[in-house]
Amino acid sequence: MKTDIEFESGGKVKITTRNRGRGAERWLTHLQGKKHINAVKLKHK
């Protein structure tokens, strides 16, 4: 597993990951302030 982070002038950041499966997607979602887990509403009959 490998992560590269590049900082450019103007505040642009580029993150590249390899061999991490979907874990990197959840991590980036968390950094953006979003939730990757949603509550499930159950319907009772």
Structure description:
This protein has one helix and two strands, in the order ββα. It has a domain of 30 residues. A two-stranded antiparallel sheet has the order 1-2. The protein has 45 residues and is an alpha+beta fold. A hairpin with a 5-residue loop joins β1 and β2. The chain is elongated.
What does this entry show, briefly?
The protein is of the alpha+beta class. The longest helix is centred in the middle third of the chain and has 9 residues. It has one helix and two strands; from the N terminus they run E-E-H.
The radius of gyration over CA amounts to 16 Å
How do the helices and strands follow one another from N- to C-terminus? EEH
- Tell me the distance between the termini: 46 Å
Q: Helix share of residues?
A: 10-25%
* General form: elongated
Give the SSE map.
Layout: E1 2-7, E2 13-18, H1 23-31
Antiparallel strand pairs: 1-2
Task: Quickly list its features.
1 helix, 45 residues, elongated, two-stranded antiparallel sheet, 27% strand, alpha+beta
